[in-house]
Amino acid sequence: MQHSPLLDDLRTVIRTCPVIDNHAHNLLRPTELGTYAFETITTEAHGEALKDTFKSLSHIRAARQLRELYGCDAAASWDEVVAKRAQVLKDDSNGLIKRCLEGTHCILMDDGLDADTVHEYDWHDQFTTSKTKRIVRIESVAQDLMEVLTSGEQLSWHEDNDESRNDDINWIWIQFTEAFQADIEASILDPEVVGFKSVVCYRTGLDIRPTNVETRESINASFRDWVASCRKGECRLEHKGFNDALVELSLKCLSDSGKPKPVQFHTGLGDADINLLLSNPAHLQPLIERYPTVPFVLLHSSYPYTREAGYLATVFKNVYLDIGEVFPMLSRDGQLSIVRQSLELVPTSKLLWSTDGHWFPETYWLANKQFREVLEE
Q1: Torsion angle, CA of 55/56/61/65, rounded to 10 degrees?
Q2: Rounded CA gap, 198 and 92, in Å?
Q3: CA–CA separation, 13 vs 228, rounded Å?
């Protein structure tokens, strides 16, 4: 059978075309490399569940490819692979990163993950053709603001007087909403910021209720609960009514700007914190309809809800499907299935690629390598 010149050219493009990594995260600083287990590169499992990852097809495949990356013997055990990796990092860590990011034109980086342990977003510029740009995580912006507003230096808290405590809450509400809107509006104008992200999927689910008279009581109550938690030093935003309201407030700012930047939503695949049923992007349809001028990006292939996400990306002009994270989290057959499901319905102009690379440079390398292999097949 003769090779088609057109097919050969297409394979060459797939193997060599530089990629714009639509969604990824910062790499760990050298002193923090032991913070997370390296075997998490192919799974969202943690704790006791992580012990079984060594028997997964995704791990077995990644281990084989990592032996190639580090120059290990083909029969090297996982412990030997990890030991060789440690030596490579000691000898030339920047060389390893450069190789892992080879073929990456630029990275759109959500730098709201583990900010205390990772490099700054622009540190990664040395390894890519074009400069790294920021994706602003709205929940991180909110938490940082609330930590300041509820600190002792900012607020004299009235614990024993209900009326005075209500005044405290009202003051925080006004200060918070004004400061949050100002931060979002500044990011809209900032050329270093190319988009926003919400992890409401992780916190309270994608069934985001509108901000109106019917939901006002829930919003107020959850805001009070969040303030009380922050006063105890626990500012993680996972209070249903206000989580929903924060997403809506962000989208309104973007819509009102006249030139809205995209908003990425974590959908589907995630760790055990997620309510799997509420991670289905179909829940976002009413929100998408309310903000038709704001681009929505559905991250992580929405696995296992890829077809639902594909439908949204097809029938709504402002929705795009990102086919990331399943590389290298799924088996090869699983990845092929995701690509095929995406192409069943979605115009190619509505598909985006990302590695969801994070912490370890090998997550970038494995994702890009496996994506090119599957796309070629």
Answers
A1: -70
A2: 36
A3: 55
User: From CA 255, how far away is CA 293, in angstroms rounded?
Assistant: 6
pLDDT tens-digit map of 65-123? 999 999 999 999 999 999 999 999 999 999 999 999 999 999 999 998 888 899 999 99
pTM of the predicted model, to two decimals? Answer: 0.94
- At which residue do the structure tokens 């405290």 appear? 168
CA R_g for the chain: 22
At 216, list the tokens. 């006002």
Tokens for 296, please give them: 């929505």
Q: Which of 146, 139, 203, 143 is nearest to 169 (CA)?
A: 146
Q: What is the 3-state composition of the chain as percent helix, strand, coil, each rounded to the nearest 5?
A: 60, 10, 30
**How confident is the model at residue 1, as a pLDDT?**
47
Using CA atoms, how far apart are residues 106 and 125, in angstroms rounded to an integer?
8
3-class SS at 351? strand
3-state secondary structure of 221: helix
Query: DSSP H helical segments within the chain, as ranges?
Result: 5-16, 57-70, 78-100, 138-149, 162-189, 200-203, 213-231, 240-257, 285-290, 306-315, 326-329, 332-345, 361-376
Cα angle for residues 27, 362, 94 (degrees, 5° grid): 60
Burial of 336 (0-12, 13-18, 19+ CB in 10 A): middle
List pLDDT tens digits, range 173-203: 999 999 999 999 999 999 999 999 999 999 9
Q: 181-214: buried (b, 16+ CB within 10 Å) or exposed (e) per residue?
A: eebbeebbeeeebbbbbbbbbbbbbbbbbebeee
